[in-house]
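So, does this match?
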Amino acid sequence: MPLLETENLVKRFGGVTATDDVSVSIESNERVSLIGPNGAGKSTLINLITRRLDPTEGEIRFNGESILGLKPHDVVQRGVSKSFQTASIFPQLPVIDNARIAALGAEHGAFRLNLLSRLDSYDEVDAVARETLQDVGLWAERETAAADLPYGDKRRLELGIALAAEPDLLLMDEPTAGMSPEETAATVELIENVKAERDLTFLLVEHDMEIVMNISDRIIVLDRGSVIAQGTPEEIRESERVQDAYLGGADR
């Protein structure tokens, strides 16, 4: 049984079809990249999976159960977490509290009145936050205000926030966007290390094809809202249809 499965997924915005009959599946422990020209529907598909958008038609199943109708925080509690295209952090809070809030949200959902309690009063939450910051190399900066981190470390923290939810599936939307070559290399190494140390499946959206080819077990290619190819990096590299899609482009 696939960990994640979409079936005939359609999303229309007025007269524009952003995803068109998209059926994909991801197995546990698979490293999958989602690529395509600008406007291909990648972000829409991710937002459908994380329940930030409702599909016009189709089905989404996680661990064999439909997640349609769930709120985004319910999907996180089911085991799906997302790191965003731009760093999504709590800038005025210390790094450790950023990780604690993510762990608390995964444990208690919307938590509501739990926010009235001290963040460090939950032993399990504190342990998850500590482990996560150690994994992403930010434990030494745990008392630093997130706003004071260098850009690359802010992106690492953002990835750490996603990991603190202890997901079975991690969705990463351009995790190296805006990074220097050195920061990009460090982030790719971090992703590889996290995959090796945790029982983690991920779906990566990334424009850097060198990263995609090196880090993926399988690649899914979207063009104009439709899946035009799926396969290993070698198969995708040799696909004339994929080459045509990138040469022709598609703008949103």
